[in-house]
Amino acid sequence: AGTLITIQLGFTNLVLAVIVERATKATEKDAESRAQEKKKQHTEASIRLHQMVEKMDKDQSGTICLGEILDGYRNMPELSRLLTLM
Fold first, then answer.
1. Residue 73: what pLDDT?
2. How sure is the predictor about 86, in pLDDT bands with cuts at 50, 70 and 90?
3. Is the CB of residue 52 less than 8 Å from the CB of residue 76?
4. Could you tell me which of 78, 61, 79, 77 has the C-alpha nearest to residue 69?
5. Confidence of residue 82 (pLDDT cuts 50, 70, 90)
6. Which parts of the chain fold into alpha helices (H)?
7. Could you give the CA distance from residue 56 to residue 81 in angstroms, rounded to a whole number?
8. What is the chain's Cα-based Rg?
């Protein structure tokens, strides 16, 4: 009887170890997915910001002055939202 209990406890321990290992792998995969999604969002935001800055550069000089920034803030809702969040 003692041997049977030992075998059952060993088997239960093995099953629990497999469950914990799978949960750990799922958590790691989820964290990796979130990191990749965050990186993707950051890249997309960078591209959008670059496009907005190019759009604000009315004189095509390659730089934007304070007036162009203020005009962009007033006339580009996405830019004003972005700057407000920052």
1. 87
2. low
3. yes
4. 79
5. confident
6. 2-56, 66-75, 77-85
7. 15
8. 28
